[in-house]
Amino acid sequence: MEKQVHRVAVLPGDGIGPEVMFQALRVLDKVSSLFEINFEFDQQPVGGAAIDELGTPLPEVTLKACEQSDAILFGSVGGPKWENLPPDEQPERGALLPLRKHFGLFANLRPSVCFPSLVHASPVRRDLVEGGFDVLCVRELTGGIYFGAPKEIREEENGKVAIDTMVYHQSEIERIAHVAFNAAMTRGKKLTSIDKANVLRNGILWRETVELVAADYPDVQLDHLYVDNAAMQLIRRPREFDVVLAPNLFGDILSDEMAMIAGSLGMLASSSLGENKGNGLYYGMYEPSGGSAPDIAGEGIANPCAQILSAALMLRYSLGCHQAADSIDNAVRAAIDDGMRTSDIFTEEPNTHKLTTSQMGDSILERMTSS
Ligand code: IPM
Ligand code: MN
Hints:
By secondary structure, the protein is an alpha/beta fold. Helix content is 39%, strand content 24%. It has twelve helices and 14 strands. The protein has a ten-stranded mixed β-sheet, with helices on both faces. Helix 1 (17-35) crosses helix 10, helix 8 runs parallel beside helix 9 and helix 10 (305-317) runs antiparallel to helix 11. The longest helix has 19 residues, at 17-35.
């Protein structure tokens, strides 16, 4: 039988994106040889790199490469160089948001995992994170205040007015709630839904709809928190959370908070998924939770783990290569357990080694096995 070829659009983007993407591609090459999986990579510019090269953050060739692929492996976009462009031409608004919308990637899964051996990297008091934790943020990604119309700044008689509109259709809340409940079923069976039902109409509909969907999942223990309270509870008792379900803006904010509590943004992968294609697989975009980190770009010290773990998520959710995904996850964990550290997670301790980006890549490659 001919081997199946998995087509992957590779968009390294800006800042540390290209450096960490290079390591993820090395890991995928190793996957290829260990598991006889064939990839076809179509690498294209996106974000500031695409503005510099082709004059626009999301060029036609890039979009086409994505359309012709099974998944998108994304680095990061943005940086000071492009910050003064008109809003819609900036890397984030001009590339990332349109990609999410174009492919209907409504479900953003952001695992926030604090490895027991990395609790020292968390800024939170040790006794609150001892033993590590594992929280999954399920963020709605194509609706809410990010996309509602009108969205504008206009002149009025007494000065400028800025308007953003928060809109949620019940069907949008339902479908993301199902994703969150399903995820909870495969984990600790606890779901915390986030809203601002004491102020926003959106919050009332959100809570009501999540309650309705809950009827399909009697085994999942559901509770609701207002977003301000959630921000506080997450930092007070991170280990008690399992799955957190949030609308677009609140999920954006809380997932950064959770990432920080976990220690380093450099460790956290994420996936943005569309509808289930029917075979348990999704079209998806996979990217580190952190940004382009322009302050350390080009120095070869960025942590490649988030990008590498994003590739593992891609293997799992879009390509159905679970064994290969396991081998990556295990290798990253083994490297960390063996004291391998990039500078963002390094502290002077016995048996730890401060590594560059490519040395960290090496140490993960060395630990990958086919069983
Ligand atoms: C994220 C980012 C984006 C967002 C920005 C870059 C548009 O912060 O993926 O969390 O707000 O969604
Ligand atoms: Mn964000």
